[in-house]
Amino acid sequence: MTRTLPAVLDVALVVVFAALGRRSHAEGLDVLGVLRTAAPFVAGTAAGWLVASLTLDVGPRELSFGAVVLVCTVVVGMLLRRVIGDGTAASFVIVATTVLSLMLLGWRVIARLVA
Predict the structure, then answer these.
(1) Residues 22, 27, 28, 30: is their CA dihedral positive or negative?
(2) Membrane-spanning residues where (predicted)?
(3) Measured between alpha carbons, how far is 92 from 73 in angstroms, rounded to an integer?
């Protein structure tokens, strides 16, 4: 159970990121649309969890673990978006990196302060 909650939280926050992005661009919040937007980033999050789990000797609540998840989420997400023909404009990469940093690292900082 120690790894389940952080993994679910990371994926949930990536889906929230996608929903916020769709809402801010008036694309609608239908479930399939949100999942389609989130899918490349969720794949990146899964890759980040795999890389961090195999290379780091820390738990998923640690900032270093979150940093690996973050980098993979953004890099893999943007590469997959590019492959499927979705936008990867520099401004989007900056906004996505900023928002995902706040989300994926933010909850870890809060958890650390609470503990």
Answers:
(1) negative
(2) 36-56, 63-84, 90-110
(3) 14
If you count them, how many residues does the chain have?
Answer: 115
CA atoms of 10 and 6, how far apart (whole Å): 6
- The residue extents of the domains of the chain are 4-114
26: left (phi over 0), alpha (psi -120 to 50) or beta: left
Q: What is the pLDDT along the chain (115 residues), one digit of tens a residue?
A: 588 999 999 999 999 999 999 988 877 778 999 999 999 999 999 999 999 999 999 999 999 999 999 999 999 999 999 999 998 999 999 999 999 999 999 999 999 999 8
pTM, rounded to two decimals: 0.94
Q: Are 60 and 6 in contact (CB under 8 A)?
A: yes
